[in-house]
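Q: Please design a sequence for this.
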């Protein structure tokens, strides 16, 4: 596990989300360009041939609306994952796609399940629960942002609407929770003020020396202000101008 002393921006924060978005749009464009349907590469439950959909189905979408609805959440959540959890981001994606896909393969209705929404639920679940578990103030704030923006997605892990793979959503949600609980990530320690350290000695604190035991401010009189031993010396240099030289 790498040492992460602070949250830092890296190229992966932009490259990975951009690559993912371009990939799903390119696949959809290929379907339109060549008038083909790639749903057969989707995940089909309890069929050995349907296992290929675990890694192919996130790139396949049934309509432009379906594709558009997944684009922005996928980009934002991937960027958040690689910024705040860069040391485990790849593992979260790989193991998350595998286990959420297996859950979907085991419990889903007999139909082709496609779309990146399972990955979106995986990312949202991991980022939310990991922030809560770590109790780091920035990560907790990120968790609250995720809830504020995507909290309504929680309803779609239940069979609310026909044509939506709630099983894929549920698989991603459960996998994200499990990874957040079991997978360790390097989290920067919040910076502490001087008085929060164990070796802090308030008697040596220059600021506290200005207050008495009751917390009253101690005024410093002019007599207490140290005077310089010698006054500064000022030396003047006079330079003759060109007219004076000519007169001489």
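A: Design:
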């Amino acid at each position: 596990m790498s040492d992460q002393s602070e949250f830092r921006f890296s190229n992966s924060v932009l490259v990975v989300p951009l690559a993912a978005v371009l990939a799903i749009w390119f696949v959809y464009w290929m379907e339109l360009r060549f008038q083909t349907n790639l749903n057969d590469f989707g995940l089909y439950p309890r069929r050995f041939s349907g296992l290929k959909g675990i890694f192919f189905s996130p790139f396949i979408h049934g309509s432009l609306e379906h594709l558009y609805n997944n684009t922005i959440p996928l980009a934002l959540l991937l960027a958040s994952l690689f910024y705040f959890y860069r040391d485990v981001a790849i593992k979260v994606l790989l193991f998350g796609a595998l286990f959420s896909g297996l859950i979907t393969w085991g419990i889903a209705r007999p139909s082709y399940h496609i779309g990146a929404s399972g990955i979106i639920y995986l990312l949202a679940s991991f980022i939310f629960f990991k922030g809560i578990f770590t109790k780091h103030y920035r990560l907790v704030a990120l968790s609250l942002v995720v809830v504020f923006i995507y909290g309504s997605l929680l309803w779609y892990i239940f069979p609310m609407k026909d044509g939506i793979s709630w099983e894929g959503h549920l698989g991603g949600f459960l996998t994200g929770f499990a990874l957040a609980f079991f997978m360790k990530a390097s989290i920067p320690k919040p910076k502490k003020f001087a008085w929060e350290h164990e070796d802090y000695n308030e008697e040596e604190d220059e600021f506290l020396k200005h207050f008495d035991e009751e917390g009253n401010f101690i005024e410093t009189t002019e007599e207490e202000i140290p005077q310089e031993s010698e006054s500064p010396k000022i030396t003047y240099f006079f330079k003759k101008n060109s007219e004076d030289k000519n007169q001489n």
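Q: Thanks. Anything notable?
A: The CA atoms of residues 202 and 208 lie 7 Å apart. The two ends are 84 Å apart (CA to CA).
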